[in-house]
């Protein structure tokens, strides 16, 4: 009997993960059955269960993979000299996820943000997934903080700024984009990049309070 190559095994695993992710993004975790996944990927139950024991393991694998891919973007950015500005880095993150998850597009709409919302909701009842998300979030946050430290080392940001606070704010910006896109679908990555760039262009008013000075007649 011919041995199956690792390349074939990896491709089959990718096929299953992409199909399951599309089902979850489209209908939610609870409304998606393993039969739905089997139909989506057009494989037998035996072929799918060879890789994953069931729906819970599929969900956990998808979340772990996504968090790892996002973390890799910031780890690479932290090694740049100088690192990309936040607006460019956020746009790079979204573009990377769109390239990494092309299967999560249906009728021209990117469904990855819907999958993200589904994962957050599922953590409220799934302790294993919640722990996995907590661990992955901490690693992504640490990678973002490395980028902020590089900003400081390059003289692009004040030394007295808390890297963790900045990292959390930048992550919240990306998460907020995902929520808006999933709910309303009218917020583009280009608009997000332009908005962040606009915020970065702000300067304090001449009086140093952050408020506009009022001219007296």
Automatic annotation (TrEMBL):
DNA-binding positions: 33-52
PROSITE patterns: HTH_TETR_1, HTH_TETR_2
Record's keyword terms, sorted: DNA-binding, Repressor, Transcription, Transcription regulation
Keyword Secreted in record: no
Taxonomic superkingdom: Bacteria
Gene3D superfamilies membership: Tetracycline Repressor, domain 2
Domain HTH tetR-type: 10-70
Protein name: TetR/AcrR family transcriptional regulator
Taxonomic source organism: Streptomyces thinghirensis
